[in-house]
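We close this part of the discussion by returning to an individual protein. Part of our work consisted of pairing the sequence of a single chain with a tokenised description of its backbone. What the numbers capture is local backbone geometry rather than side-chain detail. The amino acid sequence and the backbone structure tokens for this protein are reproduced below.
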Amino acid sequence: MIGRSLPFLRALALIQKFARCDASTLIEGETGTGKELAARATHYQGHRQAAPFLPVNCGALPDHLLENELFGHKRGAYTDARDDAPGLLWLANGGTIFLDEIDALSPKAQVMLLRVLQDQRYRPLGSKEEVIVDVRIIAASNRNLQSLVDCGQFRADLLFRINVLHLALPPLRERFGDPQLIAHDFVGRLAERYGRPVPRIEPYTLDWFNCYPWPGNVRELENLLHRELLLSDGVTLCFDAPAHPRSAAPLVAEPPHPPVHTFASPPNSQITTFAPYTQAKQVALKEFSESYLHGLMSCTRGNVSEAARSAGQERRAFSRLLKRYGISPQSFR
């Protein structure tokens, strides 16, 4: 998980807190925001890290297969059940089950899951005895489950059970600066995968990354870079909105920070004035520095030495930065 924007750092700080807990967790976010990555980070930073992490795509399994997948079966439970088979809940005992697309569960499947969440008990298909397991449940959805409850498509009691801890992952368009960092990481790994030299990404392409709305989020960025790297000359990557097959909107021309003054003229028309370049640059640098320092201090819970190491700064120099922007380490402890 890569990023330094304030929304990303806030999410990362929550993940670190969730890893120290052991309660059911709900992760919500648009497609491609990294919900499974967040679930894995929660598991592998916690005390269950040595036990299995098993993902289940609820949207890909009908009820009868989901029941067998989760609970397993005894020999003779149905035709072709020639041997006992443990379900994923048993295989994940001591670890974590990640239920992706939990909003796709049918009413019947929601009832089956509710029992497990209530008392960690279930009955394998064809068995007369219940099984007790110790499993953490992390669920994810790209839809707002509360709105589904309001319209009768999701059980309120199930939402209460899985939503003890809640994480909302920010979309990439709200993570200013992060697309550039993620792009460099993807390009490096893809170049290594194909045995190519790491190409340079043109500056105007990096600037475009912060303007494009990324409807497919990080997954869209990865797919775009994958394709462009394979088609490139191996030296540079340079492209913009017209080269993107899914981009219906033109390249966004506005600067990454809002203009200083905006006023409306006659309907369907807008005139925008900008601050002088030097002034606008100072404002942007101040906003970035404050956002970066707040996020870093939040992640390190006010530990100045740890934050300085993460920022690649000497502790004294980093302390001066905090003082310059009026940030108190004590407020993060």
